[in-house]
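Dear H.,

Thanks for agreeing to be a second pair of eyes. The structure we're designing against is below in token form, covering all 351 positions.
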């Protein structure tokens, strides 16, 4: 007998069982009695997290992000913490780093602090191998888990994501429709989101019946702050004879590096080199010219994630996954026309 079995027999959510185990007052007496009767009959012994029977909720939400210095993650944490505070919840933030052991340790530390829920900000937490996601599944048997821009099908896990596949496909189609066929895809993460973007880039070429060139998909294995390193990386590709007239970058930092590469090599932007970034962050307006970028609706996603979290904690029925569509924001690094944008959306699917 585990918490899943109890929730199934009682006809309530896992979150409700968790609240009963933690003595939360936000449970109807009849529901509490039904759950406790099943627990008594089964002889279920709560784990370390749930042992505080009779104690009130801690009104605390745990937030995990890999690196709070990352612009995207820092903004996400700000939006999430701000909305949770407005709803009366305190937040405990832990930065896990990108290694699997660090992620497991961070999640374990939050569970030991008896938080009411855990929010994992960023797609790095869902990995390709199912066994590497068991630590999230195990945590979800104890408390609700909410994933920002990552997708994991598991009871008591709730996901709020941007359709990065469709957004990257549409951005690539926009460039292809403008007549540029030699598009360099530059990425620096093999996370869930990173792989979706790569697949979207590849799908656009298949749709246009243009053969893919493996050399045009380049992984930058460097710090997210190393803009000069991105510039040198692209210069190295040029020296090796790789020809490209557009760069589709998986985040705005890479796109800034691409603009710097163009200026260093006296390549006119956007006349000779088009650049598209991703996240539509502050970096796009700090560049000259300003960078065309995909707006992945971060603020809206964070607000929805918090609404889902509050709803689950209040025993409301909430969707396990909410999907947002990205939007290509045209600025100074592309020559895309409105007509090309419409054609892109027709061929590549609406953002």
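And this is the sequence the design step returned. I haven't edited it by hand at all.
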């Amino acid at each position: 007998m585990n918490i899943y079995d109890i929730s199934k027999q009682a006809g309530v959510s896992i979150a409700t069982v968790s609240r009963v185990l933690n003595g939360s007052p936000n449970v109807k007496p009849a529901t509490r009695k039904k759950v406790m009767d099943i627990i008594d009959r089964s002889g279920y012994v709560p784990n370390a997290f749930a042992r505080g029977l009779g104690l009130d909720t801690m009104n605390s939400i745990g937030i995990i992000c890999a690196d709070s210095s990352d612009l995207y993650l820092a903004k996400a944490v700000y939006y999430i913490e701000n909305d949770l505070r407005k709803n009366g919840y305190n937040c405990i933030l832990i930065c896990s780093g990108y290694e699997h052991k660090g992620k497991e340790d961070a999640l374990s530390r939050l569970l030991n602090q008896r938080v009411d829920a855990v929010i994992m900000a960023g797609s790095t937490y869902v990995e390709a191998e199912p066994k590497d996601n068991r630590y999230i599944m195990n945590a979800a048997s104890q408390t609700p888990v909410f994933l920002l821009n990552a997708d994991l099908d598991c009871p008591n896990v709730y996901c709020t994501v941007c359709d990065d596949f469709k957004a990257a496909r549409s951005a690539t189609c926009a460039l292809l429709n403008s007549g540029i066929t030699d598009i360099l895809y530059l990425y620096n993460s093999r996370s869930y989101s990173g792989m979706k973007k790569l697949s979207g880039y590849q799908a656009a070429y298949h749709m246009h019946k243009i053969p893919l060139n493996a050399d045009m998909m380049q992984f930058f294995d460097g710090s997210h702050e190393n803009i000069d390193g991105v510039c040198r990386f692209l210069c190295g590709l040029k020296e090796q004879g790789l020809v490209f007239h557009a760069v589709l970058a998986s985040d705005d930092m890479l796109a800034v590096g691409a603009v710097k590469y163009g200026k260093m090599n006296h390549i006119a932007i956007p006349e000779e080199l088009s650049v598209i970034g991703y996240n539509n962050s502050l970096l796009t307006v700090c560049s000259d010219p300003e960078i065309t970028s995909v707006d992945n609706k971060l603020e809206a996603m964070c607000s929805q994630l918090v609404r889902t979290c509050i709803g689950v904690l209040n025993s409301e029925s909430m969707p396990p996954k909410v999907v947002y569509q990205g939007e290509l924001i045209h600025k100074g690094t592309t020559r895309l026309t409105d007509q090309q944008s419409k054609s892109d959306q027709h061929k590549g699917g609406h953002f």
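Two observations from my side: The longest strand covers residues 60-65. Residues 71-86 form the longest helix (16 residues).

Warmly,
E.
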